[in-house]
Amino acid sequence: MAEEHVYTVSELNRTAREIIEEGLGGVWVKGEVSELTHASSGHIYFTLKDAASEVSAVRFRSRSPVLSSIEPGMVVLAFGTVTIYEPRGRYQFVATLVQPVGAGILQAAFERLKQKLSAEGLFAPQHKRALPTFPVRIGVITSPTGAALHDIVAVLSRRWPLAELLLFPSAVQGEAAAEELAAALDRAARFSQTQNPLDFILLGRGGGAAEDLAAFNDEHLARAVYASPVPVVSAVGHEIDFAITDFVADLRAATPSAAAEVATPDAADVAHQVDRSVERARRALSDRLTTREHLLRTALRRPLVQTASRLLETAEQRLDLQASALSRASRRELERASARQAKLDAMLRLLDPVRPLERGFSLTYVEGSAHPLRETGTVTPGTHIVTRLAHGRLTSSVEEVEEE
Q1: What 3-state DSSP class applies to 194?
Q2: Which of 106, 158, 188, 323 has its CA 20 to 30 A from that of 56?
Q3: Share of the chain above pLDDT 90, in %
Q4: Rounded to whole angstroms, how far apart are CA atoms 234 and 269?
Q5: How open is the CA angle 77-80-82, to the nearest 5 degrees?
Q6: Cα-flanking dihedrals φ and ψ of residue 363, to 5°?
Q7: Domain for residue 152, yes or no?
């Protein structure tokens, strides 16, 4: 009979550690924090316990940081490995991620999905598409009753009223929101391909708690944003909020209002640039005319050897005629440039939505709607309406509806 192996204490502890680490691997543990100690080395020692058991735990300073501060009595969700501290033969849990239960689960899921999609290249800068300088048609995916839509409409009306806005409504929170958002994104893409091309799609909502923004951290929605044939601008929550769609989209904006700002030009700036361009063209034409006239006059002053005086006079007359024709052509070009400028200015003035209001007209909306009323069929007695004037708004209630 072969002699049995006799372990030293060190061999026993090392063998037990290897068996435990290889057998379990990385595990999640839920428990209540107790006996929390912050060592001078930066390591954190604590105990995780439930109603029946407890385990010693440590989070080393070199590991990933705790995503939120932990305190004794707090129930946490921890990820790490089970091992044995060989010098003392002590069974312990080495945590690499510690997060309070609840919001911590959402954050941990957010980080895992973020790392997964980043590793697949969905966040790579080379996949980001530039937005057009002067958008004509913009798709918006958000709640039709949320503040985000009102903010977007207000900013675009002020900055770039030339763009047509198309709403593809969707829920922005709740269990079904992620699926609805992906479906709305698909509808917008099909509309762009089969009806009228969209320059970009603005996807977003206003601020809220982490649970309210969870739909924008959905993997299916993130992949739909990445695969969209139309560039996507993601604007979710407030400035401090980040969603997975922010990393996948072609452009991230801090808020819906900021998205409308950064994705469109300012009509006033465009008009100013047109004025400057016309003025530069006018000066260039004027300088060229002056140079030509100077060259002609210089040529006329040169002595003409063996040339009859009549021939000289004829040449001077021909040069005068050419100079006059050049002057007329330059003036016509200046007139055409001025006419183009006037036409562009008139277009901008005609498209200003405030001008009709200043002439005594008004716009009436059903309260909460972004679209003005055009007929009485959608209004009943008792409906609350908002009338926009050149200066201010009126809120009233419909007493009678009369078809014309």
Answers
A1: helix
A2: 106
A3: 34
A4: 25
A5: 115
A6: -120, 135
A7: yes
CA 138/CA 165 separation, integer angstroms? 5
Within this chain, do residues 142 and 254 fall inside the same structural domain, yes or no? yes
What is the extent of the structural domain holding 13? 9-101
* 244, 218 contact by CB (below 8 A): yes
Tokens at residue 173, please?
């929170």
* Token couple for 115: 């790392």
Whether pLDDT at 375 is above 70 = yes
Q: Which residue has the higher pLDDT, 243 or 305?
A: 243
What CATH number is given to the structural domain containing 73? 2.40.50.140
How many CA atoms are closer than 13 Å to the CA of 158, on its beta-carbon side?
8
Separation CA 260–CA 206 (nearest Å)? 13
Residue 110 lies in a domain: no
Contact between residue 146 and residue 172 where contact means Cβ atoms under 8 Å apart = yes
Query: Mean per-residue pLDDT for 304-326?
Result: 71
Q: What is the SS3 assignment for 116?
A: helix
342 and 376 co-located in one domain: no
Strand partners, 48: 33, 55
Neighbour tally for 386: CB within 10 Å: 17
pLDDT tens digits for range 166-201: 999 999 998 899 999 999 999 999 999 999 999 999
User: How far apart, in Å, are the Cα atoms of 33 and each of 58, 71, 156?
Assistant: 11, 7, 51
